[in-house]
Amino acid sequence: MRLLVVGAGATGGYFGARLAAAGRDVTLLLRPGRAAQIRADGLRIVSPHGDLTMAPEIVETGKLSGHYDAILLSVKAFSLAPALEDLAPAVGPDTMIMPVLNGMKHVEALKRRFGSKAIIGGVCRIAGTIDAQGRIVQLSPMQGLTYGEFDGTASARMQALDALMQGAGFEARLSNAIEREMWEKWLFLASLCAITCLMRGTIGEVVAAPGGLAVANGLLDEILAIIRAAGVPPGEAAVAGARSMLTAEGSTLTPSLYRDLQNGSAIEVDQIIGDLLVRGEAAGVAAPLLAAVYAQLSIYQARLTAA
Questions:
Q1: Catalytic annotation on 117?
Q2: Which of 63, 76, 105, 185 is catalytic?
Q3: What's the Cα-to-Cα distance from 31 to each of 45, 50, 64, 141, 237, rounded to whole Å?
Q4: Distance CA 91, CA 97 (A)
Q5: Which of 95, 122, 158, 234 could be bridged to 100 by S-S, CB 3.0 to 4.6 A?
Q6: 146 pairs with which residues across the strands?
Q7: Tens-place pLDDT, residues 18-31
């Protein structure tokens, strides 16, 4: 199976490198600047699971030829539109596209462009960043990919993809409920982003602040109400796990959106927070705390755009 990784940053680059190092047929689709950097220095990973430097197979945007069996799409949500143009030449009649973007809005865009048959569900779990040297730095031991057909079947193509993913040095799991798991991840991620960005602190700092625990629980409850009304309801274990992690005393947990905010970078505010509010309003669910988060982050994003 030939796999194309689109968006070889901290997420796609990490999983692509691990798969390539395990002998899989992996190609990274890169912009010219990133391609030149990796050709010069190698694709470098700093990880609690072992550091890695390798020379991956690379193709630059605009130079794709031939179709791939599967595409791992891992870009920031605000970069989705150009990424679709970049990867389009790689999509054949039997190509699977597995997006691991945040939120759910991207699924609708992908299905409109390439048809429902081409799109499968995906969830990634990793915390990483690219440092000043261009290295992918894994920030915690967590690492995994979950994938599946939206109808829950263990199709032949999903079994082939599962075989590709197994034994590559990270947790890989074929799911028969991938859509629910994607909504569960959105519940956790949106809550984590909302709590830390509104309060400008780690989970532990928020919980320790006066009224912080109530704000954290309030935001989780609002997002949970929206998803139950407008999405696929999460399992009780997922809800309990999210609440435990989002209210843990002393936790240093923050999301990449918070780190982007601190670094003055563009953020996925519309995809992670704004889209939830749109769906909540359509379902008649009020979310005043979440609306305050969205307003605050939208001001930040507008200033960044205007600068």
A1: no
A2: 185
A3: 19, 27, 12, 28, 41
A4: 8
A5: 122
A6: 123, 173
A7: 999 999 999 999 99
